[in-house]
Write a structure and sequence with these properties.
alpha+beta; elongated; 8-stranded antiparallel sheet; single chain; 294 residues
Length: 294
């Protein structure tokens, strides 16, 4: 009986630690700016927005990677160049309103973006130490990492090159920026910390590819937000490990047509969630399916 009580107490303490984990995260310093988008969201990695820093080698590499992956899907698709699915942004999320991130999204500087592994992570951000630009009381906003803010080494880090390595910087939508600072501000000092992601509904799996190439974009991820490993399973296969293509696009070379599909997703804290038979046997490219949630 004593062992049972001890186990019960341990589980209660473990749950309490999970609840307070976000509150224990220390605030770190960074800077923030905003970009104007007509729909209130931000896609800093789109080709149009990224053209302003074309001289950057890192941006050039990211653009080449975008072109390579888009052409790869177009050329290998069994529908040829009629394929409708084209991803935008360095995380591949495309229309941020359809993926539920909307205006509360941000492009991260190189050190925060961490080669795409931070895609989907959530940050609490507040403006501090600027009496003219920060809103009274320093209110905070919760942002999702959805893109890469490329460096521009042609400008100094305190005048336009805000995303230069090793600067920690958030490029926000104008609507989200206005929740913490005056719109007239050019750049503001902020504090940030990692928090758990609160999502509505389950994980979303958008499949694309062809008979030899299978790719899935994973969005609306709760808890840590960051996906670190993915497996896929058909009704006639075992679990197959997928590799990160770019951002939150995961791929493998297999034909799963005619089979119900299951996914196993692992986030950065090590928790794993399996969503069985999320796609029926008659699924097609490109389609989006909803699974369980963390």
């Amino acid at each position: 009986m004593g062992a049972l009580q001890a186990t019960f107490l341990f589980l209660i303490l473990l749950k309490a630690c999970e609840i307070t984990d976000a509150e224990d995260e220390e605030w770190k310093t960074a800077t923030a700016t905003y970009t104007k988008e007509t729909d209130g969201s931000i896609i800093t990695g789109s080709f149009l927005a990224s053209f302003r820093v074309l001289s950057s080698f890192c941006l050039f590499y990211i653009m080449l990677l975008h072109v390579y992956n888009i052409l790869k899907i177009l050329l290998e698709s069994d529908k040829g160049f009629g394929i409708k699915y084209v991803a935008e942004g360095a995380c591949g999320y495309g229309d941020l309103h359809k993926t539920s991130y909307g205006k509360h999204s941000a492009g991260l500087s190189t050190i925060l973006f961490n080669r795409g592994s931070s895609c989907g992570a959530c940050y609490e951000v507040r403006c501090v130490d600027h009496i003219l630009w920060c809103l009274q009381g320093s209110p905070s906003v919760i942002l999702t990492a959805t893109d890469f803010c490329p460096p521009n080494y042609g400008l100094s880090s305190d005048y336009g090159g805000w995303c230069n390595f090793p600067q920690e910087h958030f490029e926000m939508s104008e609507a989200a920026f206005a929740e913490i600072a005056e719109r007239r501000a050019d750049i503001v000092p902020v504090q940030y910390r990692r928090v758990k992601c609160a999502r509505s509904g389950g994980l979303r799996f958008t499949v694309s590819g062809n008979l030899r190439f299978f790719q899935v974009l994973i969005t609306n991820v709760g808890l840590d937000g960051e996906v670190v490993a993915v497996k896929v399973k058909g009704s006639r296969t075992g679990w197959i490990a997928m590799g990160r293509n770019w951002g939150q696009n995961w791929q493998c070379n297999i034909n799963l047509r005619g089979q119900p599909i299951s996914f196993e997703v692992t986030v950065s804290s090590g928790r794993t969630l399996a969503s069985y038979n999320v796609a029926p046997a008659n699924w097609q490219f490109p389609q989006t399916f909803e699974g369980k949630q963390f």
